[in-house]
Write a structure and sequence with these properties.
This protein is α/β, with parallel strands linked by helices. It is built from 7 helices and 6 strands. Strands 1-2-3-4 form a 4-stranded parallel sheet, covered by helices on one side. Strands 5-6 form a two-stranded antiparallel ribbon. The chain starts with a helix and ends with a strand.
């Protein structure tokens, strides 16, 4: 339907979100209209390199969300990461400015969310500086300060039914790399 609307001129662009490289590859092979935009999670600890490379190859705009680390959950490993704090101080910038500039230099459109006027103003001050190739390389190869607590990509979540689960509601967990179940939340079930 969206492809038909695009051909009729009723839509200017078609976008998809949260796609894996395999899903995007399949879509590119089978779609009559290749997506114009892909919106995925991208931050220095989750750079989504393969999808970004595919977007570049097929001239699809890549749009990054959660660039400042909110997908990882508390504590946020991006804003307090020692390497980022050190780089930001050396550049006389904030860590969010550094990370957003990194994403922009990779060709990503960024969606920084803020309700604070001072953060909104800071987020707009990204176009009067550039990161050097050395600084970009540091961000490109950044590692999580606590690897076993790193949140998985939404596309790598493992679903497990636990014997004690109540069917009137679903408890949502992700599985840490060490096998520990980390509770994310609860959702009421549609099962009657």
């Amino acid at each position: 339907v969206l492809e038909d609307f695009h051909h009729q001129g009723r839509l200017r662009a078609i976008g998809v979100c949260n796609v894996s490289p395999d899903q995007l590859s399949s879509l590119i092979r089978t779609a009559r209209v290749i997506p114009h935009i892909v919106q995925n999670w991208m931050d220095p600890l989750h750079p989504d390199t393969r999808v970004r490379e595919m977007c570049k190859e097929y001239k699809i705009q890549y749009q990054a969300y959660s660039s400042l680390g909110t997908q990882h959950g508390p504590p946020n490993p991006i804003l307090k990461h020692p390497e980022l704090v050190k780089l930001a101080a050396a550049a006389n910038r904030s860590v969010p400015q550094l990370v957003l500039r990194w994403a922009l230099q990779h060709g990503a459109a960024v969606l920084p969310r803020s309700s604070k006027p001072e953060n909104m103003a800071s987020n707009l001050q990204l176009f009067d500086f550039e990161l050097s190739p050395e600084q970009m390389a540091v961000l490109d190869h950044l590692r999580h300060p606590h690897p076993k607590r790193q949140a998985p990509s939404p596309l790598e979540v493992e679903l497990r039914m636990l014997p004690s689960m109540n069917l009137s509601g679903v408890q949502v967990f992700w599985v840490a790399r060490d096998g520990e179940l980390v509770r994310v939340g609860q959702r009421n079930s549609m099962i009657h």
